[in-house]
Amino acid sequence: HPHIHQQSFESDDFTEVVQAVNQLGKRILKEEERRGQLIADVAHELRTPLTILRSQLETLVLEGKEVSIHQLIPLVDEIIHMQQLIHNLQQLSLAKANQITIKRSWFVFQEWLEEIIETLNIKAIEKEIEVKVEGKVSKEVYWDSSRMKQVVINLLGNAIKYTEQGGKVNIVLKQSQGIVKIQIIDNGPGIPPEKLPYVFKRFYRVDASRSRVSGGSGLGLAIAKEFVELHGGSIYVESESGEGTTFTAILPIFPVD
Ligand code: ADP
Fold this sequence. Notes:
Number of strands: 7
Keywords: ATP-binding, Kinase, Membrane, Nucleotide-binding, Phosphoprotein, Transferase, Transmembrane, Transmembrane helix, Two-component regulatory system
Main location: membrane
Organism: Thermoflavimicrobium daqui
Catalytic activity: ATP + protein L-histidine = ADP + protein N-phospho-L-histidine
Strand order of the largest sheet: 2-4-5-7-6
Bound molecules: adenosine-5'-diphosphate
Membrane topology: Multi-pass membrane protein
Helix content: 40-55%
């Protein structure tokens, strides 16, 4: 008879082990599901611009005439759209996998913000939207300036994109005890309450048809959330249909741990 070593379990211990294994199994299945969904979403997102590109190119080829620059511009736009999508997706997966190292440096918040507003000003002027800044952050901040710039571009870009001609966009700044609060407030169409919980999810769009026209991919807010959280901050949204939307990001000026 081989010697059988018996490990005696208290029955409570055993139940706990079984539960833990079950939970792990469920988590793995959920993760698998999430991955499958991500691949499906990416495939879906790339299909539309690729279909457009292909049919436009085929038309040009079939016509057999010399192609003018003017005919090529929309094709280049589609390619840029796909590249942006892939870049955003890459940023998002890197952040999710904890593979982004943020490069912090001290910089003057106010100058940095003015520059970002300047880059988005053309779009605002086109839509006769006035971007006003209320409040001031006099301190320097110790952030990853390019990652945080992306956050502000995504939020402010959305505010300008979704607000109608002649609308208003306000940036409200507050600072206290090592914390900066940035609010981006617009008087655009707002987001219906039942859709609010989902706006930070990747590929989520409140109005898919309208977003597609405005070139959105539904990744901007997901990226903003990841980048803010990488800085130890938090972000949330408040909105009322027909009234407007407020995004609030709260960030420590330098890391606290
Ligand atoms: P997109 O690339 O579609 O703009 P985002 O992740 O930036 O993706 O935003 C997700 C969705 O949230 C948008 O499609 C839009 O429906 C909604 N949204 C974001 N910002 C605003 C805003 N300021 N006003 C109204 N709706 C907004």
